[in-house]
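Annotated sample (chain length 188).
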Amino acid sequence: WGWFLGYAPIMSAFVARISRGRSVRELIVAVIVVAPLLTHMWFAILGGTGLGLEVSEPGVITTVLAEQGMASTLIAIVGALPLAPLWIGIALLLVFCFLATTADSMAYAISVVITEKDTPPISHRLSWAFGMGLLTALLLLAGNGSINALQQFIVVTAVPVTLILLPTAITAPLALRAATKNTTLQTD
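Output written by the structure step:
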């Protein structure tokens, strides 16, 4: 809940930007159908494989998780699949794409808010992306305590974001219905 709400404003700005020129139907199918299905498949395959490995050989996954962390656990699970090097490469590529997309959308959203332009200068976006990358590197160098503190901060800040997003969740369907009626009236 907290993670979703913490990232919701940034991801909303990103989805809105990449959705220009697309129909509402295309947007709904992509965001509400395709993305959750792919996410469900990702978690079902990895989670099911991890559970299966742990049941068949107790400690094989939980030991890696306890000693080396979540990233190593992902590699351990994917490494147990047939054609392991191929699947490890695909998993790393997907994780990289996720991180790059998240960083780009965050830099874009921050730049839009600060510059008050729909298309902020590339240099502005790059400076924010570089700054976030530098902050990430510093947090990684500082150790797990700093990352945990940041994660807790994101969850805590999700509470006020909830109050901002709640009216949007209520009024968005009404605005969509009104827009649909106006489009229908204009075409008639």
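Annotation: Residues 15 and 31 are 8 Å apart (CA to CA).
Annotation: The two ends are 43 Å apart (CA to CA).
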